[in-house]
Amino acid sequence: MVTLMTLFTFFFVAFCAMAAFVLTIFALKMTFKIVLLPLKLLFLPIIAVVVIIKLAVLFAVVAVIAAILIPIAILLAIVVGPFLLIWALT
Question: What 3 state SS string does the chain have?
Answer without folding.
Answer: CHHHHHHHHHHHHHHHHHHHHHHHHHHHHHHHHHHHHHHHHHHHHHHHHHHHHHHHHHHHHHHHHHHHHHHHHHHHHHHHHHHHHHHHHC
